[in-house]
Design brief:
mainly alpha; about 85% helix; elongated
């Protein structure tokens, strides 16, 4: 049974944060400088915030499901390995 975990490099994590902050700033500035009424800008800003929140929630949920399945597979692998070890002893 292998214990495989991949770690992201510091540069990748920094790039991810910088990309998120940059894109959020560009959207915010785009909404701020649009030639529209303030209530339309507010509606677009609320929609953007909800979209970001939904993406974060969906990403976390998908990762949790994947991690849960991986743990179940590990437990089943351990049971199978233990069964094979006991059969090999006989």
């Amino acid at each position: 049974m292998t214990n495989e975990t991949t770690q992201h490099s510091g540069a990748w994590v920094t790039f991810t944060y910088a990309s998120f902050i940059g894109s959020a700033a560009m959207v915010a500035l785009g909404i701020l400088f649009m030639p529209m009424d303030i209530w339309v800008k507010g509606y677009l800003a609320m929609g953007t915030v909800m979209l970001v929140q939904s993406c974060i929630t969906a990403t976390k949920t998908l990762r949790d499901v994947h991690e849960g399945r991986r743990m179940v597979n590990r437990i089943e692998d351990a049971k199978t390995e233990r069964l094979l070890m006991s059969v090999g002893k006989d």
